[in-house]
Structure formats: structure tokens, C-alpha cells
Specification:
- The structure holds two protein chains of two kinds.
- By secondary structure, chain A is mainly alpha-helical.
- Helix content of chain A is 70%, strand content 0%.
- Chain A is built from 13 helices and no strands.
- The longest helix of chain A has 37 residues.
- The N terminus of chain A is likely disordered.
- By secondary structure, chain B is mainly alpha-helical.
- Chain B is built from 15 helices and no strands.
- The mean pLDDT of chain B is 82.
- Classes of the chains: A mainly alpha, B mainly alpha.
- At the A-B interface, α6, α11, α12 and α13 of A face α1, α6, α7, α9 and α12 of B.
Chain lengths: 298, 329
């Protein structure tokens, strides 16, 4: 687990800033092309794209529904049920496919909310400067100083366990890094001549913010987000494992693993396979994230 | 040194206060009305108003927060709905096991991250393999690692116990150290057998993350002039790393170590649940599943405070390791 592992350090943010700001265009460097990436990175991007497609289409070719009873409970993998059945006699393969889709969609929701909340706060801080900037960034720092995952436990404990509440909880603590990235980018861009020109031309603050300042943070935000996907999937899976996700008939990889623990010594596949699916997802996401970073950073 | 620490105190207190405030907010949004719950369904409106007044729920927001602070400061965290003990006494009972697990995980984190970082940064044999293993374990969910170890070392090889903890060590709760100092080596071996798998699983994620940062920071150090000088003197690669590059790499490594603490906490909760390790994590997950909200709030406060304090310590360590940071403040 490394939810914060790949987040940009201040030094890296400075690097990003240079790479994506004016520096690159002045130096005449262009973003790396797909074919210039290392082979492992190209493979990772393809795997991520195919995996994403499979995850979204899983209902189409899953052999059964995730809650359909298809056979004898805890039957081992066989031709009829490729990965075996769970303790209720539901097809494990179908449940894992649906679980993968839930994982991917949940991670997308958390990251999107992080980008939006953090983006708005960072943009306001970066553009307003002065006291507004100081207050917003102190609050952001405070959130960074608190143990996010632990607060999620308390939030979901308060709201009651369900996937929706878990997503709300994680979203509440997941925005500060994005606020910092966008704010840093916005402050740097505000000092550039084209913003001054826009201001002299009498454009409204909102227009300057959205049209002239915001686009400069797209690159760094895409990089941060793509490196973040794996961590979010891991965190959500752990929370689901602890019983914070939706209750049983829902197919979440974490809670499926937790249920399977009862049969660990007789039918290890019931617990291990959903957990292995999480591993594969995160592994692909981490490598693809690295590839996307190299693509954007050049 | 004393001034460094004193200088950090106001920020530490501020963050601790923020922690209590956030926990208070979470506590305050619980949908269940504690007054109605404590009186039962047949309570009249007048009774509810009287009880609200008695418990202080009709007071303004800041007064209620102040009362919450007072309670926390006196160690009054309410009563667990599940165990019917006070949350404070439950926490006291479960804390030592977590402390022991954290201690040995910490030892493993330091050892593993040093080995991984130095090994993968040096050009010596196997560096590529170490990097691949690091990339893989950074993607492994804690529960998968736990299950895999149990299946291999208990189910297949019958080498290690799958769960639980030996229950000697009454005085401090640190079973291994106590047995070592009182000469009970059989007990010590048993305790080590129980702690080794959970401690390893807790440690591996942070160790890899820290090892990766250490590798990056070492590689950067290795391009410096003084390293080239050392090389031209004919020093061996490994002793250059250990003698000349390691200390200069400390700052980013310590920063990452602080960041990893939040994950260690969730890791501990998952690991204790899988291995039935009777600590705060097991208590937390059992409380969560049973909607035992006072207990969840108690654990959040205690582990959260530990996190904040450890990060403050890491901050001071960074200042000690790098004099330039001291100048900058």
C-alpha cells in the first residue's frame, strides 16, 4: 500500500512546472510520443486500455450474473465454472468481473471528486493570492497533516457502511494534494505575460481563471491522477475488506476476500482470487500511471 | 535541540486540536439521536428537552465542542456499545498488542528499506530483480499479502502459527522484550513466531515506498562531486553509499516515512483483522462492523494522535539530519 507514495514532492512539482510550463516550449521539446516509451510502459498502457474496456463491458460477457446461483457452493474451478463457485454457489468469475468494474468506477469517482474539489480550492487560492491563498492553503496543509484513511473509517462508521458512504468519506480527505498541485501551477501561471496581457485587456477574473490560468494545470493534474489510481483502488479495497463497503450481495473485491477467509484452508480460491484481481488491477494501474507520466512529462 | 523541539510544539498542538475538531464534527453528524436513544421510544417531548438540557445538547456549537474537548482531556470517551466497558479501558487493554506489533514493524521497515534502497541503487548483482519485486509489492493489497503468507507458512509448510498472540508479558505488553530480559527464551521464540508474519506484512508496503525514495535520492547523490572524489580515491561502491551518500539522502526519505504512517495505520487494522492480533486494529474493525460508534471515535482519536505526534517527530528528525533546513526557518 502506498497511497501517498507517488504523490509529487515539492521538488517534483517544480520539475513538473518546468516541464509543462513555458520552459518546454522555449526549449523546443515536445511531449514524448507513444512509440518512444519503453516497451514495458507501452505494454502497461495497452493492458490498462484493454482492462478498462473489459471492466466496463464485463456484464456483456460474464457467464452469469454476479448474484445468480449457478451450482454447488464451493465447487472447485472446472470447465463449467472457470474459477469455481463461492460459498453461496455463485459463479466466482462473474463476481470478480463485476467487482473489477466496481473498483475501477469507484476509483474514478474518488479521483474525479478530488480533482474537482482540489481544483476549485487550488484555483481560487492561486488566483486570489494574499489572505485568501494563505487561509485556503493552511486548511489544505491541516488536512494533509491529519491521517486521512483513519478519518474515512470514522466517517463511514458515522454514516453506516455502504459503498456510497465510503466514496463520500474518501472524497472528503482526498482533495488536498490536487489543491496543492493546481494552486502551485496557478501561481506560476499568474506571473506569466499572457495573463498580464489578459488583465490589461480588461477580461473578467473568471475568464482569466478558466481560460488563461486553468489549462496550465491540466498536465500536472493528469500526472498526479494517473499515479493515484492504484492507491485509491488499494485503499477502497482495504476499506471494503474491513466491512465498510456495501453488504453481501454486492460484488466488491475486498468484501469477497473477507467472506472467503472462512473457507481459506479448504477452498483457498474463494478468498485469494478476488484479492489477486485487486493486485492485477493496481499493478497495471501503477505501470500505466508511470507511462502516462513519462508521456506528459517528456 | 531543545529549541528545535519547542519550536514545533505550537504546530503540533494546532494539528492535534484540528484532529479533535474533525472527530467532533464526525461525532456530531451521527444520524442517530443519542438523547432519544438513551430515553427509549416512549419518552415524551418534555422529557427529551429536559434530557437534552441535562446532557448539554441545547448549548451552542462551540460550547458543545468545548465540552467534547474537556471529556477527551479527562480520558472520558464514552462507553462501548459492544463490550459495555468504557472505551478508555478497552483502548488500554488493546493498545499494548498494537504497540508491540508497531515496534517490530518499525524495526523491519528501517531494515528492509535500507537494504532495498541501497541494493537497488547500487549497481550490484540483482538490482533489477529488487526493483521488480519492489514494483510488485507496492501493488499488493495488505490482505492478499497476509493471506498468501498464512497459506504458505502455516497451511503448506506448518512453520508458523496462523493467528493470535501468546499472552504472557503482563507488565508492559511487549512480550518479546520482556521474555528476553527475564530469560524465558521458549516464550520469546513463541512470541516471535506469532509476530513475524503480521509485522512483515505491515512493514513491507512502507518499506518498499521508502526504499524507492531512498533509491532515487541515493542515485541523485551519486552524481555529486564529492562522490566522484571518493570514487577516484578508489573507494568501493558500497562503502561510498554507506559513508558518503546515505546521510545526505535522509531528508526525502524521512518525508516519505512520515507520509507512510497513515498507511501503516490502515495496514495495522487490516493485518490485525486477518491475523486475529488482539490490538487496537482488531478492536476497530470489530467495532466498525457492529456499528459501535463510541469505540470507533475512541480508536480514531488515539491512532490519529499517534500519527500526528509521529509526524512531528519526523519533522524534528529532518531538521536534525539537514542543517540547511534549520537555516531556512
Amino acid at each position: 500500500m502506498k497511497a501517498t507514495a507517488s504523490l509529487p514532492s515539492p521538488e517534483r512539482s517544480a520539475g513538473l512546472l518546468r516541464a509543462f510550463g513555458r520552459g518546454r516550449r522555449l526549449a523546443g521539446r515536445r511531449p514524448a510520443s507513444f512509440s518512444a516509451l519503453a516497451r514495458t510502459e507501452r505494454v502497461a498502457l495497452w493492458a490498462a486500455a484493454i482492462g478498462l474496456l473489459l471492466a466496463m463491458l464485463s456484464p456483456g460477457f460474464a457467464p452469469h450474473g454476479p448474484t445468480t446461483l449457478v451450482g454447488v457452493p464451493l465447487s472447485p474451478p472446472s470447465g463449467a465454472h472457470l474459477l469455481g463457485t463461492d460459498d453461496q454457489g455463485r459463479e466466482l468469475l462473474a463476481r470478480i468481473l463485476y467487482g473489477v468494474r466496481t473498483s475501477v468506477l469507484s476509483a474514478a469517482v474518488v479521483i474525479a471528486s478530488g480533482v474537482i474539489i482540489g481544483g476549485v480550492i487550488g484555483l481560487i487560492a492561486g488566483i486570489a493570492g494574499g489572505i485568501v491563498d494563505a487561509i485556503l492553503m493552511r486548511v489544505t496543509d491541516l488536512f494533509l497533516a491529519l491521517p486521512g484513511p483513519l478519518l474515512v473509517l470514522a466517517i463511514v462508521g458515522a454514516l453506516g457502511p455502504s459503498l456510497k458512504h465510503t466514496l463520500i468519506g474518501v472524497a472528503i480527505v482526498w482533495w488536498p494534494w490536487y489543491a496543492r498541485v493546481v494552486r502551485g501551477q496557478a501561481r506560476a501561471t499568474m506571473a506569466l505575460p499572457h495573463v498580464e496581457a489578459a488583465r490589461l485587456a480588461g477580461l473578467s477574473r473568471l475568464r482569466i481563471a478558466l481560460v488563461h490560468v486553468l489549462p496550465s494545470s491540466f498536465g500536472p493534474v493528469v500526472v498526479t491522477a494517473s499515479l493515484d489510481v492504484g492507491n485509491v483502488i488499494l485503499l477502497l479495497a482495504s476499506l471494503s475488506f474491513l466491512g465498510l463497503g456495501s453488504p453481501d450481495p454486492a460484488s466488491e473485491l475486498g468484501s469477497m476476500t473477507a467472506r472467503g477467509l472462512t473457507y481459506l484452508f479448504t477452498n483457498w480460491n474463494v478468498a485469494v482470487l478476488p484479492a489477486a484481481a485487486v493486485f492485477i488491477l493496481v499493478f497495471i494501474a501503477n505501470f500505466a500511471g508511470d507511462a502516462i507520466r513519462d508521456l506528459v512529462d517528456g | 535541540m531543545a529549541r528545535l523541539i519547542l519550536g514545533r510544539l505550537p504546530a503540533l498542538l494546532g494539528v492535534l486540536l484540528a484532529l479533535t475538531f474533525v472527530v467532533y464534527l464526525i461525532d456530531a453528524v451521527v444520524p442517530a439521536n443519542p438523547v432519544a436513544a438513551s430515553l427509549g421510544a416512549g419518552a415524551s417531548h418534555a422529557q427529551i428537552v429536559a434530557k437534552e438540557h441535562q446532557l448539554g445538547y441545547d448549548k451552542p456549537f462551540y460550547a458543545q465542542y468545548w465540552r467534547f474537548l474537556e471529556r477527551v482531556a479527562h480520558g472520558d470517551l464514552g462507553t462501548s456499545l459492544r463490550t459495555h466497558n468504557t472505551v478508555a479501558s478497552d483502548l488500554g487493554r488493546f493498545a499494548p498488542a498494537t504497540l508491540e506489533l508497531a515496534l517490530w514493524s518499525g524495526v523491519l521497515i528501517i531494515g528492509l528499506s535500507l537494504v532495498l534502497g541501497v541494493w537497488s541503487a547500487s549497481g550490484v548483482r540483482g538490482a533489477g530483480l529488487v526493483r521488480a519485486v519492489m514494483a510488485g509489492s507496492a501493488s499488493t493489497p495488505t490482505f492478499l499479502a497476509s493471506i498468501a503468507l498464512i497459506l504458505i507458512f502455516y497451511s503448506k509448510l506448518h512453520l508458523l502459527p496462523p493467528s493470535g498472540r501468546t499472552s504472557s508479558g503482563e507488565a508492559t505488553g511487549l512480550v518479546i522484550l520482556e521474555d528476553f530480559f527475564s530469560g524465558k527464551f521458549n516464550g520469546m521464540v513463541g512470541a516471535i513466531e506469532h509476530v513475524i508474519m503480521p509485522a512483515f506484512v505491515v512493514a513491507v508496503g512502507p518499506a518498499v515506498a521508502i526504499g524507492r525514495v531512498l533509491r532515487g535520492s541515493l542515485l541523485e547523490q551519486m552524481r555529486q562531486d564529492h562522490i566522484r572524489t571518493a570514487r577516484s580515491k578508489g573507494m568501493g561502491e558500497l562503502s561510498i553509499i554507506v559513508r558518503h551518500a546515505l546521510r545526505n539522502s535522509a531528508t526525502p526519505v524521512l518525508a516519505m516515512a512520515g507520509l507512510q504512517m497513515g498507511l501503516v495505520l490502515t495496514g495495522v487494522i487490516v493485518v490485525e483483522t486477518v491475523f486475529a492480533w488482539p490490538g487496537l486494529g482488531l478492536y476497530a474493525s470489530a467495532s466498525l462492523v457492529n456499528s459501535d460508534f463510541p469505540a470507533v471515535i475512541g480508536v480514531t482519536l488515539v491512532l490519529g494522535a499517534a500519527y500526528v505526534v509521529i509526524n512531528a517527530v519526523v519533522d524534528v528528525l529532518q531538521l536534525l539530519a539537514d542543517p540547511r533546513l534549520r537555516e531556512a526557518r
